Amino acid sequence: MKRIAGVLLACCLVQPVTAAEPTTCLVLSGGSARGAAHVGVLEALEELHIPVDCVVGTSMGAVIGGLYASGMSPQRIREVTVSTDWEDLFTDRPARERIPFRRKQFDNLPIFEFEFGLNRSGLTLPTGLIAGQKLDFLLKALLLNTTVVESFDDLPVPYRAVATDLATGGMVVLERGDLATALRASMSVPGAFSPIRIDGLDLVDGGIARNLPVDVARDWGAVRVLAVDISNPVRPQEEDISALGVVSRTMNMLMEQNMDISRQSIGPADFYIKPDLGDMGPGDFDRVEEAIEQGKAAVLAEQDRLRPFVVSAGEFESYLEEREQRLTQRGSSPVLDDLIIEGLQRVDGGRVTSRLKTKAGERLDLNVLGRDLARVYEMGEFERVEFDLDPGPHGNLLRIHATEKTWGPNFVRFGLELEADFRGSGEFAALAELNRVGMNRLGGEWRTLLAVGEENRLLTEFYQPLNRKGRWFVSPGFIASREREDLFNEDGSVSRFLVDSFEGRMELGYQFGRYGEFRSGISRGRLNTDLDTGGVLENASRVNTGGFRAAITLDQLDSANFPRRGFFLQSELFLSRDGLGAEQEYDQLSTVLVDAGSWGRNSLVSVISFGSDLGTMLPPYGEFTLGGFLNLSGLPPESLRGQTSALARLVVYREVGRLPSGLGRGIYVGGSLEAGNAWPVGVKPAWGDLRPAGALFFGVDSVFGPFFLGYGRSDTGDGSLYLFLGRPF
């Protein structure tokens, strides 16, 4: 499905009227993706000239019913439902190309995608896997014409939404307030979506309390009910006993219990229908068009039973005209008389307003506003960033409400790094990252990374923007590590060294927004090398290091794991100088360029990297290395060392499946063609020296990071199986 290109600003304004006691009420149940069938039901009802006096909905039924009650035609609802990229809509994370570069830097680490908070009580969890940032904006934009409505009785079709009080489990009937917020509350599945607070109550999916709210329509005064049941069937236990399956089954059982009560209340004057949606599951949003057609066909097949609800063509035309009279035309771009930011506690308001292009005194442009809210959300410090348009007595007031993450400002993420070639070579590390944000009004943050395993690392950095837009920054930091390095000798033996390094840095940089950054600065440290195994090094080495570093990085890849489009460029120059404490002077330049493209489900990634001593003499600890998975596959990791190196590789892969929602994205099979080498002192690089290699692999893009199982083969005929958890590109 294509992502909805844009949501047009609704051009209607509801005029308050007094709703008569409803005669016929349409009741729409919840059912997630299956709820798209409601759109087809609405189309069929209008084709058959069946008017409804009110709508009551739960969860997805509340969404479809709310859009219809706002005055939107079934045809327009179909267009929105089919053209929306639902997978993207249920992902809070913005498109990677648009994320500020500071956040992209973290993507290149083998860190899990989910984060925790840290306070005095320990680790805390977010209130839901999905905050609903994109969903909120879509609903607000679609329902902008209802902003003057206080009571849902005053909508073109009077309306009620059903939610569940998280504290008591009781049913809450929403009949006034912001319509878009009511829809969000009704569909907030516990654990998946964050609860929505309305009038002091934390509200979640209404299906838990009443999935088919027939009694709500009765209590409202409905004489007849048109009930549409698209709930999920309870499947045999053996079909799914996974953790996600247990959660889904529990929800279904809770809903089915109250559904039975609702079904039993259906009387002879009512109409009940359950469209046959086959094996369509609650998460099958790629089948919404199929569900629409099934819903429409199910109603049209019941024309005889529906005859008591049908009116003449003239009467139905009068009904539509009466509904239309509740609407008056309005300019599609209202002028904003004022704009305020609400909800800020830790974050400085100037950092938010500096990211907004929407201004008071100008006409509202939803596309511009959408990008504004995305930029604020991309700061990484907010759970949700929403808007409300309040057309009060003093003009149109735009309220931007930014909800700071309740589990912040200390954020913790964990990760795993693994590379094993099943020949005795392997590295494993467990990682933990702590990031303290919002340390001052300019958004200073303190980030610490700890890795424990074959290589132990501690990295801590204080990142201080110098203005509210965050372009210029200073970054003092400290790095300490202990790693084991293998030296492959000419006789085939391997010497292993323990290398301890300590380095302090002070850098000044400039960020190019979401595109990349340039930074430069000085460093000073110490390197201790001791023999671990083998017999090459007789004495331990103690070396002082220091120098000047400059680096530029540009990153527009759409994914750090399995990119389909975009590019990545990183070039770093290091000048070791005795004036900065170094015992040996040398120059070192390294560059890597990645370009990704795709066609259909296939992707092609080309990578070129090289390193040069720029005519100087690199010490052993400054040499370039090659070997390992997709790095001259088939050779042991870092088995080639030299003063100069070059590597080119073409990696092609095809998406052959998808992981369940919440566990990741694609499943891939692919392969690589590689050529490269590392040249020692005194050897001039030549094209004829390039060594070929290749690999075949199976890959999974999971929330725990990219996972690879592959086989590589080098020019020497050496082959190796690889198990790799991390980012190889």
TrEMBL record:
Tell me which residues this entry annotates as catalytic.
59, 205
Question: What PROSITE patterns does the record tag this protein with?
Answer: PNPLA
Q: Which Pfam families match?
A: Patatin
GO MF annotations in UniProt? hydrolase activity
The UniProt annotation puts motif GXSXG at 57-61
Which InterPro entries does the entry link to? Answer: Acyl_Trfase/lysoPLipase (IPR016035), NTE (IPR050301), PNPLA_dom (IPR002641)
May I ask which residue range the UniProt record assigns to the signal sequence? Answer: 1-19
In this chain the PNPLA domain maps to: 26-218
BP terms from Gene Ontology: lipid catabolic process
Entry keywords, A to Z: Hydrolase, Lipid degradation, Lipid metabolism, Signal
Reply yes or no: does the keyword Metal-binding apply: no
Motif DGA/G extends across 205-207
Q: What is this protein called?
A: Patatin-like phospholipase family protein
